[in-house]
Each structure stands twice: as structure tokens, then as C-alpha cells.
Amino acid sequence: MPKPVTLTQGRLDAQTVEAYWQDGFAFPITVFSPEETEQFRAELEEIEDTWRETDLPLPLTMYKRLNAHVVMPLVSRIALDPRVLDVVEGVLGPDLLLWSAELFIKEPRTTQVVGMHQDLTYWGMGETPDQVTAWIALSPATVTSGCMDFVKGSHKNPILPHNDTFSDNNLLSRGQEVAVDVADEDKTHIELQPGQMSLHHGLTIHGSGPNTSDDRRIGLAIRYLNPNAQQKVADRDYAVLARGEDRVGNFIHIDTPTELFSTPALELHARIQEDQTKAMAQGASQTTRLYKAEASGTP
Questions:
Q1: Which CATH number does the domain housing residue 195 bear?
Q2: Does position 37 have pLDDT exceeding 90, yes or no?
């Protein structure tokens, strides 16, 4: 595992920022202590235990996998933590929008994978540089547990053609995979310990393998935007003003939840899903949801 990125007063140094733009990713970056991360995991698993049989409009998995920050205070609390934003600011600047946050969980001894793909293919924002994904490990993310693999420098490509495989073994909604061969030797294994984070560009080719370990692989993927980003496919899009100012106004500002799965939050979540589906389902050959309802894994 590589040496953790050294932060200066909690922020990325110029060398690391330069490396991010050169490679398309940076890792591992420690933002939370193991003890604090263990508390996050315990709170998440308590939510899973408490709400599993609750009569929600959608399966609980869908709320974890799709805009969890809208209905789960735990997720928005992590995503808006100043320690995380201080790091992200080094890539996107002082004005930050929280666009989405997704809990990605691979259960022990599962065989499902995520095909190699580029995120921006499905966001409806074109090839904008005004975005970054912060992926925070709440449990060990290793080769054995199915950590992400990144292809160094692949973000310098445009949006590449992707194939929709609709494979039952691929956890993405369309089984989407970039239509180029990615050799194993071109993959960088993004291994993270609990409380560590990676950053990656939306054009960086990435995917992940199965979890053959005896523990859950739990990660939180948080998508941040600079306000200059623009939704080009859907009629409307939404974001939380995380830091600074939004002088552009390309996104409808929303509030973070104050309680779990409140009625107003669930209604907002449904409205966002309806609007964003137009962008994320663009070009699909079959009718599809943003994510498979039964899926519990991710990139």
C-alpha cells in the first residue's frame, strides 16, 4: 500500500494537486481516525438494522445507493465535514457543491464486480473538469475485498464509447463497461484503510473486483462540483452549497436532512431521482433504473 498523502494544515500540497491532474486520481488521504470511522460504520449498520423492514417507498438499498445525502443525516454530515472539504478544495477551489453521495457496500464472499467505466458518461455534464469524486473507506478496501482500480492518465481521454452488457454480475444498472480493453498491468489498486479517502476525476477509467474477504467492504462515494459545472441533459439538477458561493446558479440548491427518511426528504429524493434519471439513462437500449434495487456493491 502506498504511503499516505501528507496534508499541510489539512490541505493538499501543490505537488499532490499536480499529481492528481496528471494521473486522474490521488490516494490514500487520511481524513478520519479509525475510531471515528468505526463510529460511522456502527451508526450506518444501526440504520440498516432499524430500517430494514420499515415501509419506505423504495427498498432501503436504493436510498443508500442513490443520493443518500438527501435522506440520511449521517451521510450529509460526513460529506460536509470540513476535513473532507479542505482536501476537495485543493482540486476544485473554494466554491463547492455537493451533488451526490452514495453508500457502496459489497457483502462478504460476493462475486459481483463493476466493469471498467467513466463516471461522466452518465452524469449529463459533458467532459467538465469541474467535478471530483471523494471515496471514503468505512471498512478496509483491499484487493481481496474488491477495492477500486484506476487507470492512470485515462482522464485525458474524452468520454469513450461504452457497452451496456446488462450482466447480472455487474452491479451497475446497465452493466456498462468502457469499450476498450484494459490490461491488468495498467490498473492501480486503490487500497484504503478505514478513514482514508481517494479522489478521482470523472473521466478516469475505473472499476472493481469481487469481495472475497470475510468482511463487508463499505465505501462512501461523494461527488463534488465547482459551480461552473452544468447539467446539459436533464431539465433540472440539484446540489447542496457545501462551501463558498454559487455565483452561477446552474443547480437548484437543496438543504440537508435533519432526520432519517422524513417525509419532505423522501419527496425531495423522489423528485431528484425523476429529474436525474433523464441524464443517467441517456442512450440506454433498455429501460433502466439508476442502480439495481438488489445491488449492494459499487465501484
A1: 2.60.120.620
A2: yes
